[in-house]
Q: What sequence folds into this?
């Protein structure tokens, strides 16, 4: 992928992704003041008379959050009147949607192949009397569980298996059944997919990953078109106190300026790597790569749906090596890639996902996050490590 926006991405947009990213959330220019004001560190604010705001107490609002939330909203749904709520982590954002919307006796539909922490959320929901139904992401299998549900939770592409579902189709069916729709957009980021424009009520993400992209902060957000839904999410943040620090919010806003540049290089690297891995898998050597998944690979089963709804296919490639020992030899042989559990950063990372025990993946399953290294260098390093592991 080139550094320009893909054909069709500009439809209805006055500017491209890169232009929007560097301007998003900036205040009107003030002579002799910085373009992006520094973080505001304040537990309280001067508050004469009645507390009419906008800033009253540091657990409720902060000017640094406001600018970040405005910026993220502009990326999530350009030209739309949306509300974004920033959180201390992606899981804080996930929890805010689920626990602000669900009550005892409600039913929720979750993916059974989603993020590793979702099983912990399922257990907690059940203790509160919420009926939890699960189905795989692939094949739009969640469609069969919507009757009487209060909320449908979608994760597409799924992490770490990279299955994709038809968000528009699921959102239409869920709304027809009276259910709200939330999409975990962490892996795609707003640069790769816009869930609200696909029919979702909530777009949720861990901004720890690709949105901020430097692997140095924890953050999350929820964006809604409906002000009442956003108010419920914001109220939950106030109740549990899962607020971002001003410094983290400022760093995140600063990082957004490069999100398009990072996303384009990461996606280009991921596709090049996926193609190289596919060739090795097709060679059929039982001592080498066995399966490869990447939504941007034309041979991938998710490619037709992903190409309809995704604007970029993401930085994560998943592949399977013969066994645990083989995978660990491969990881040890890499020189340009960190063995780490996150993804979406400027430095490539990879891990044997089965080491955590929570994902239904083979022992030799590798989740690889392509960074922004030179493509040839990265692919060469991976192929050399595979040769060494197989030798």
A:
């Amino acid at each position: 992928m080139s550094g320009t926006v893909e054909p069709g991405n500009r439809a209805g947009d006055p500017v491209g992704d890169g232009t929007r990213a560097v301007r998003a959330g900036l205040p009107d220019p003030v002579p002799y003041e910085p373009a992006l004001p520094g973080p505001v560190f304040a537990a309280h604010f001067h508050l004469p008379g009645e507390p009419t705001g906008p800033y009253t107490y540091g657990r409720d609002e902060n000017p640094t959050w406001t600018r970040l939330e405005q910026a993220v909203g502009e990326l999530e749904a350009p030209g739309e009147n949306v509300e974004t709520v920033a959180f201390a982590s992606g899981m804080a954002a996930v929890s805010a949607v689920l626990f602000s919307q669900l009550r005892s006796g409600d039913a929720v539909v979750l993916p059974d192949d989603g993020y590793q922490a979702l099983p912990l959320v399922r257990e907690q929901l059940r203790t509160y009397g919420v009926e939890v139904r699960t189905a795989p992401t692939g094949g739009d299998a969640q469609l069969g569980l919507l009757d009487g549900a209060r909320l449908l939770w979608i994760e597409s592409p799924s992490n770490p298996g990279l299955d994709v579902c038809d968000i528009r189709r699921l959102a239409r069916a869920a709304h027809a059944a009276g259910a709200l729709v939330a999409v975990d957009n962490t892996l795609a980021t707003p640069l790769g997919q816009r869930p609200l424009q696909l029919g979702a009520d909530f777009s949720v993400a861990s901004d720890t990953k690709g949105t901020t992209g430097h692997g140095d902060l924890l953050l999350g957000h929820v964006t809604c078109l409906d002000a009442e839904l956003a108010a419920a999410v914001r109220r939950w943040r106030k109740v549990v106190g899962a607020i971002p620090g001003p410094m983290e919010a400022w760093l995140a806003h600063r990082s957004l300026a490069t999100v398009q540049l990072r996303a384009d290089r990461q996606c280009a690297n991921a596709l090049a790597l996926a193609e190289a891995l596919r060739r090795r898998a097709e060679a059929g050597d039982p001592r080498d790569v066995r399966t490869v998944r990447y939504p941007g690979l034309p041979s991938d089963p998710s490619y037709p749906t992903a190409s309809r709804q995704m604007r970029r296919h993401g930085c994560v490639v998943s592949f399977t090596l013969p066994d645990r020992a083989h995978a660990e030899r491969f990881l040890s042989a890499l020189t340009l890639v960190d063995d780490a559990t996150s993804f979406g950063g400027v430095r490539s990372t990879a891990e044997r996902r089965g080491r955590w025990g929570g994902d239904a993946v083979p022992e030799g399953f590798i989740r690889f996050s392509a960074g922004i290294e030179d493509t040839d260098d990265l692919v060469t390093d991976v192929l050399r490590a595979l040769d060494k592991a197989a030798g």
About this structure: Residues 259-282 form the longest helix (24 residues). Residues 260-390 form a domain with the Aspartate Aminotransferase, domain 1 fold (CATH 3.90.1150.10). Confidence is low (pLDDT under 50) at residues 1-10. The chain has two domains: 17-256, 260-390.
